[in-house]
Amino acid sequence: MNAGQAGHRERTALLMKRAAYAAVLTALILIAAKLSAWAYTGSVSILTTLVDSLLDAGASLLNLLAISHALTPADNEHRFGHGKAEGLAALAQSAFITGSAIFLVLEAGQRLADPHEVSNTGIGIGVMVFSILMTFALTRYQNYVVKQTGSVAIQADALHYFGDIVVNLSVIISLLIGHYFDMPWVDPAFALAISFYILTYAWSIFKKALDMLMDRELLDDEREKIETLILNHAEVLGVHDLRTRVSGPNLFIQFHLELDGHISLAHSYAIAEEVDQKICMLYPHAEIIVLQEPYGIEVRKAIRRQNNNGQGGKEK
């Protein structure tokens, strides 16, 4: 690993930890504010956001622990590092969010059957506006960190907190409608809609976490971009068996580089190093494994396999 990569990883670790700490602090502040608002208003919509913030705090704390573990350098027992701890944290987040949504569905259903008038709506609206401003500031910072680091755990957190903004806006609307139009059933109806909305976020987080844990390949356009970078080198004659996977803040890229079979081993190594540096310019957090081999060897292997299969078929 060169000095540039080491510096990038240190900055990545710092940004991810700061984002995780910011999420925990924001969730704790919003819990205190929403608890007061719910005590004054009795609104089930505000209760949904309170429960959501409680789970935000738990999930963000889990995120912080997982990120700290994911950023631990590779050791003898974990040669590829601990990056998948991020995927496990995101998976746990999806479970937390799903549990909160189910609880809120039950609570909203009960309140729909027996609607209660919401009191002190002004306090509730004020707290929701405060929550929106706090959450908006947090998501802006989280999105910045995601662009810089590609962290799936921070992305999961940012996605959920962005959903909170929509939820808080809907609570304000429900409080206004319920207060000015004397429609107490609007509050639990909005809470029910919010619960199903939260479930969609749980699914998206679950899918992203599963992709990481199952070593899903990069998107096709990203793979094509890597192949183009490799083949742009004047002395590279071909590339095959390109494999990619993401593990926390790390991206692993592996491929076979096809070169002129008459060049020296030292020269083939120099070419591989040049290709490595080009890829690292585009993906500074990547760890690259390159296998150099003579051009055309794959074709010869395929012909040999075909001939062997043909001979086996004749023997039968």
Summarize the structure.
By secondary structure, the protein is mainly alpha-helical. The protein contains nine helices and three strands, in the order H-H-H-H-H-H-H-E-E-H-E-H.
What's the helix and strand layout?
Layout: H1 3-41, H2 44-70, H3 84-113, H4 121-149, H5 152-180, H6 186-213, H7 220-231, E1 238-247, E2 250-259, H8 265-282, E3 286-294, H9 297-315
Parallel strand pairs: 2-3
Antiparallel strand pairs: 1-2
Sheet with the most strands, sense and barrel status? 3 strands, mixed
Classify the secondary structure makeup into a structural class: mainly alpha
**Total beta-strand segments:** 3
- Helix share, percent: over 70%
* Count of discrete alpha- or pi-helical segments spanning 4 or more residues: 9
Largest sheet: spatial strand order: 1-2-3
> Are there runs of 5+ residues with pLDDT below 50, and where?
none
Percentage beta strand:
5-15%
Note the gap between the termini. Answer: 53 Å
**Helix and strand element order:** HHHHHHHEEHEH
What is the residue-mean pLDDT, rounded to a whole number?
Answer: 79
The radius of gyration computed from the alpha-carbon positions, rounded to a whole number of angstroms, is 26 Å
- Report the principal-axis shape: elongated
